């Protein structure tokens, strides 16, 4: 992570809006490093599609996939922070048909991603962040209630 990314993460977690960004469109994605096994947090644009939050692995039009994306391929369990909360999720890379549908929606919200795609030879992946169901910490079922 760069110093700029560190500054964005710090500002976001302190409740401030990072310079040049919209707090409500920012998402912090925490992944597990595929080589180090350490947790890494990366700021990126939050794309709230109707079914779930999505992120785009454009790497700012880099010719190579970003490191966080490679981490997700290795371990899809992630943690997501956004302006109004946080949740655990499983990251799913969209297949071709799903990607095409999501891509059209994303371009309506963030048309600059079309420029990113034009500048790279790789297909830029889109990742759906599916919330992990809440598991309550009960080890035993609730006792039956007698109705005498």
TrEMBL record:
Q: Where are the transmembrane segments?
A: none
One Pfam family named in its UniProt record: F420H2_quin_red
What is the designated name of this protein? Answer: Nitroreductase family deazaflavin-dependent oxidoreductase
Give me the reactions it catalyses.
Answer: oxidized coenzyme F420-(gamma-L-Glu)(n) + a quinol + H(+) = reduced coenzyme F420-(gamma-L-Glu)(n) + a quinone
Superkingdom, natural source: Bacteria
Q: Which organism is it from?
A: Agromyces seonyuensis
Which GO cellular component terms are attached? plasma membrane
GO molecular function (one): oxidoreductase activity
Family (UniProt): Belongs to the F420H(2)-dependent quinone reductase family.
């Amino acid at each position: 992570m760069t110093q700029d990314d560190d500054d964005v993460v710090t500002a976001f977690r302190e409740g401030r809006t990072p310079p040049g960004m919209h707090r409500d469109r920012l998402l912090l994605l925490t992944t597990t490093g595929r080589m180090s096994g350490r947790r890494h947090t990366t700021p990126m644009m939050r794309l709230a599609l109707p079914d779930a939050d999505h992120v785009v692995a454009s790497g700012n039009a880099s010719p190579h996939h970003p490191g966080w994306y490679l981490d997700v391929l290795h371990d899809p369990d992630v943690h997501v922070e956004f302006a109004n909360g946080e949740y655990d999720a499983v990251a799913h890379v969209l297949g071709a048909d799903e990607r095409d549908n999501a891509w059209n929606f994303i371009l309506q919200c963030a048309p600059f991603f079309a420029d990113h795609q034009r500048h790279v030879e790789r297909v830029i992946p889109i990742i759906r962040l599916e919330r992990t169901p809440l598991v309550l910490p009960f080890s035993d079922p609730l006792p039956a209630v007698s109705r005498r």
